[in-house]
Write a structure and sequence with these properties.
Length: 458
Amino acid sequence: MAEQSSPMNTTENTQRKKLNITLFDVLNYLIKYSSPTKFVSINDISMYLTFCITEAEQYGVEDFHNLDEEQLLNATTEMNNTMLSADGLIDESVRTQVKRLIKGNLGKALISGISIQAANRAQDTKGQLRSDIEMYYVKMPLTDTQIIMLRDAISVFPYAEPNITEQIVDSLNGLTPEYNRIEYSAEIVNADKYRGSYYENLNEIRKAFSTITDDEKPFVPTEKDKKFTVKKYAEKRKKPIKKLRFVYCEYDENKQLVVRKKNGKSERIVNPMKIMWVNGYYYLVTAYYDEEKSSLRYINYRIDRMKNVQCLNENADDLEQHLPRPTQAALRHKRSSNKKPTDRQVSALSRKIDDNGFSIGEYRYSNPIMYTGNELDEVILRCSKSLMNNVIDTFGFDIYSRLDPDDSGKVLIKLHKVAPAGVKLFALEYGESCEVLSPPELRKTVKNAAKIICDKYV
């Protein structure tokens, strides 16, 4: 854009204008119209702000920040029309202020994950660099593709109220430049896709994990908090995990959630361990110590099938002493400030577990269908080679596999520490391509289930 002299550039006009241009104004433009693949110049930003200030003058508004959305849209439209017909007129004082703000903040983390970056300088028609219109873009915490992935996922997520879905999608859209924004289809958000009370349940469950929830009042420092810091506030909030109480339900023949009683009781009081998204559902993983079997046991609950969820003012049971010894060793290593060399397996395990000794990855593949039970130390399957994609999707990569020496079209799969119910369902689902070889009791269970199925069709 060539610079032109105009009445806007006079000292008189510059003095009577109250610019009030801030770093936010520059960022706002960059977020709307730039990305790592589309750059803008100081002239582009300056022209937009010049038109905003001019629009404010026409409405008799002293500060252009007080313009409403319609008025700002008029300024943008007028600017675009001008750019189509001729080079825009830019107030030099605006350009100077924009240049100062960009140069003073270039490359800095202005907000977490957001910064202004310089691109290659633009070239004129002769291929020479033009230093007066160096190009810039805003670096965002997420790329456009990542935002699209998240937006598309929540759009079809069947366990959030329509208004919550719309709010999340609108927020994600706000992180995408306007020029590259794919409009969100309102038809995707409808009441038909909503099942359960995920949002309310999830918000209450988060309280048990000492997390600030959406309905919690913000912390306001008082005179006693003169040395307040974010770090101290975070440490202040650290507290033991709390127990949860809820009623667990199941669907009846009328598609209504009804209470599922256990030992004659409708309420559950549990020790929460983790919230997990598996197989298209949210689960709460809980734990307890089984004194009869002298082992730590886990139970999953579908969050959308919970009712009357309440975080209790009672600490969850201390179950750390009941963790397997390798996990306890890994936990001590994880917590140690002095990371001395240790056993390689202990070090590797410490990277997989959380601060309570729980590993989402291992648990996910040990309970592929999220059916809990006594884990089997070892399971051997014989599967068709064509089933390997499904095997890895279900049980992960931490398996042993080799070609069957008796049949090159088959693969022998060895699983470790896996719940039998999940393996049984997998074997039945892929019955023609999967056979359980051991342990004998699991093989017999699958055989009996297959016989019952066959008898139904005789």
